[in-house]
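Fold in tokens:
===
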Amino acid sequence: MKNHVYSHSSLSRSFRAEDFYKDARLRDDEAYKNEIIESAISLSRAGVADISLSKTIAKGKSCYSTSLLSERILFRLCASYLKKSFGIYQKNRNKIVDELVNYLKDGSACRIYRLDIKSFYESCDKDKVSKAVEENRSLSFQTKYLVKSFLELCKKNTLLGVPRGVEISSILADISMKEIDSIINKNESVIYYARYVDDMLIVTTSYEDEQHFVSDIEEKMFIHGYTLNTKKQKILLLEKIDTAAAQISFEFLGYEFNINNPGGNANRKNPRNVEIDISEDKIKKLKLKISKSFYSFNKNNDFDMLIDRLTFLSTNRKLKKNRDPQVLSGIFYNYARINKSDTSIKMLDYFVLQNTLCVSSRLAKMRPPFTPEQKEKLLKISFINGHKKRVFKEFSANRAHKIGKIWR
């Protein structure tokens, strides 16, 4: 049994950059920060079965959050202990993309399975998770007690599975998926397997029967309470590099992968060309944020805020994460693996231009035309430059919170 301590020092390391952005008092008021930590220590002893969960609906699914920061840092620390004890670590998106590209460039024939788990968090079997945690000898009594009290909280609130959005839910769902992940990885047909929450990608030798392969996965998942979302399922065959010219594409982890199989005189010394671009879905989400920024300006006429919002979206920033190394975020660092020269990011610049110059659009009709000075500032906004030149722009914690408020 490991000594999983819920102490002042360990909990103080559980703060994240977002906490300091949302609550500026954390940066300057040490007494206030200590109060939160002491509250978390008390909660670690009393359990979490009686805390409150707030519910919101996002994309038709229930999302939950805890009301107090002390609860969130406690769950983060508990989650970190669970990850270490079960040996479950979520790979970095960039690492997954790099690994995947290496396999896709290889000239051998392969089959790509893009699978999606339906209702991932809601399907988590609480009883199986509870049993796995209880039987894990490296977990401390206090960590086991916290998990037990959290699962009691879920049952008390008649929640299916574990609550999407709560800091500890992700690792509990991963514990429930651990056996399935292991079965897929050990399959003799599998060359590469990656799962990022409910998104699954499997690369196989292509020798297997695809219907039997998927059915076998579905059967194993059903035993553990999970099902696949067939509407999002995609299976692609990539022929041997010198067999036939072909081009296939699929989306994964916010990227669109375009694979070109040259065929003809191609050989293994000239690997497949794998182009990576931002996915269509991510472009739509960024366009929605741009639209909301212009719409907010139409309501409050705060031009400085409009510029800051568009600048925030089109640039990069350093997020200070307590004592940990700085986290880099923004248009480049969120999509750092784009290698397509004619990237779809240019569509975002065109979208800003449309909203700035077009006077006949629905948004434009709701406000007076921009002045020449305002147009000049708006047309300096460039997502392409922000990505290619890795442009940085810093905002205060308070300003960053106000900027992002309309997008939540």
Remarks:
- Residues 280-300 form the longest helix (21 residues).
- Residues 359 and 365 are 7 Å apart (CA to CA).
- The two ends are 41 Å apart (CA to CA).
